[in-house]
Amino acid sequence: MHELDLHHIFQLGLILVMIAAGITAFAKKLKQPYPIALVIVGTIIGLANIPVLEPLKDFITEGEVFNFVIITLFLPALLGEAALKLPFSHLNENKKPILALAFGGTFLSFLIIGFSSIWLLGFSIPAAFVFAALMSATDPVSVLSIFKSVGVKRRLATIIEGESLFNDGLAVVLFNISAFSLITYLDLGLLGAGHGLWEFVKVISLGLLIGGLLGYGFSRLTRYFDDYPLEIIFSIILFYGAFLLAESFEASGVIAVVVAALIFGNYGSKIGMSPATKLNISNFWDVVTLLANSLVFLMVGLEITRINVAEHWGLIFTAILVVLVARSFAVYGSLLFIKNIPVSWKHVLNWGGLKGSLSIALALSLPRDFEGREEILILAFSVVLFSLVAQGLSIKPLISWLGVNKKEEGYQEYEALIARAHRYETGIEEINKVKKNLFITEMVSDSVVDEYEKQRTKLHNEINALFHKHPDLRKKQEIALLKHSLYAQHEAVGHLLKQDIISSEVAQQEQDLITNKIVELEENS
Known about the structure:
The protein has 22 helices and no strands. It has helices at 2-29, 34-47, 54-60, 63-84, 88-93, 95-120, 125-136, 140-150, 154-180, 182-187, 190-221, 228-248, 253-272, 275-304, 313-334, 343-351, 357-364, 373-402, 411-434, 442-469, 471-498, 504-524. The protein is globular, with a radius of gyration of 27 Å. Belongs to the monovalent cation:proton antiporter 1 (CPA1) transporter (TC 2.A.36) family.
C-alpha cells in the first residue's frame, strides 16, 4: 500500500510538472511573464471541475504538502540561485537603498499593517501582526521576470532583488515572533520587549553566522576540485544544509541560505572555480529555478481557489488597500534620505513589491487552533492573488510609461539604422532572386541595386559614426559578435567529436577553452 501511495504521488507530481511546463512554454513563446500566467491558469483549474485533475488538486492543496514543497523543497533553491548570481560588487554599490528597503521599509510596513489590521480589520494583536509579517515580504520572481523582458536598468533590478532576498528573512523572523511569542512578550511588558528584541537579534545573527561559516567552508572546499558535477552537488548541499541547520538551531534559514550563497557565488567562484564550472553551476540552477518557479506559481493558483471569499469582500478590499498604502510608506519613507534614486524608480519599487508563495506557505503553517487563522488565510490569499495578477500585469506598462526601460544613449538610433540597412539588404537579395523569373534586364536591375547599395553604404558610414560617438555601443556589438562566433566554434568541435575525427579528451579540452572565453566575455559585458 505504501509503495502504491508513493507511485501515485510521483504520478501526480509528474502531471503537475507537465502542466506547469506547458503553461510556462506557452507564456514564454508569447513573451509574457510566466508566473502570472501560471497563477491565472492554476486558479481556473482550481475553480473548474475536471475529474482527471481532482486527485492532483486535493493532494497539492493539503496545507502540509503545500507548506513543505514551498518552504523546505523550493525556497532554499530559489533564494540560493538568486544570491549565487548576485555579484557582491553590485550589492555593495547599492547597499544603502537595499538595507533601507529590506530592514527599514519592511519594519515600517510591518508596523503600519499591524496597527491598521487591529483598527480596520478587527484582528486580535497576534493575528494583526502575523498578517503584517506575511504582507511585509516581497516576492521578486514575478517582477524580475518582467524586468528582464523589458530591459530595465541593472541597478534597479539589483535593488529590488537585494531587498527581497533580505526582507524575506526578516519577514519570516517577524512572523515566527508574532505567531508564537508575541502574547508572552506583551504580558511581560518592558522585560518582554527586551526578550523580543533579543530573540530578533539572535535569530538573525545566528542565521548570518551559520550561513557565513558554511559559505566560507564550501568555498575553500572548491579549491581542491576542478569537477563541475561535484561542485554542483556541493552547491545543493550548501543551500539545503544552511537552511536546515539554521532552522534546527531556531535561526533564520532564509538569511543563512542567502549569506551562504552570496559567499559561495562570489568568494568561492573567485578562489576555486574555473569559468567552465561557474557557467555549468549557473546553468544547472537556471533549470532548477525555472522548474521550481513554474510549480510554485501553479500551486499558488490551485491553493487560492480553496479559500471561500464569499461575504468577505469588504474586508478583502480594505486589506488590499492597507497593504498598498503600507508599501508606499515603506518605499518612499525608507528611501527619503537616499540619494541617486530617481522618483520613477521609487514608483516601480513601490508597485513592483509583489506578494507571493512565501506569504501563502507561512499562512498555511499557522497552527489549526490559532485565533483568526481562517480570516488571515482569506485575506493573505486575496492580497497575493491581487498582487500577482493586477500588479503583475500592470507593472510592465508602468515601467514603459515611466521610461525606466530606456536603452543606453544612442541605442534607439542604432536600432533604426540597423532596421533600414536590413531593409536594403533584403531588397537587393530579392531583386537578384526574382529578376530571372521576371525577365528583368541587367540594366534595369543594376540601376535599382546600385541605388540600394548607395543607401546601404551611407547607412554603414552612419553606424560607424555612431560607434565613434558611443564607444560602449560598439563594445556591446563586438561582444555579441564574439559570443556568436564562440558558440559556433563550440558546436563545430562537437560535430568533429560525433564524426570520430577527434577524441573526447581533445573535444572536452577545446570546449572548456571556448566556454572560459564565453564566461570572460559575459563578465566583462
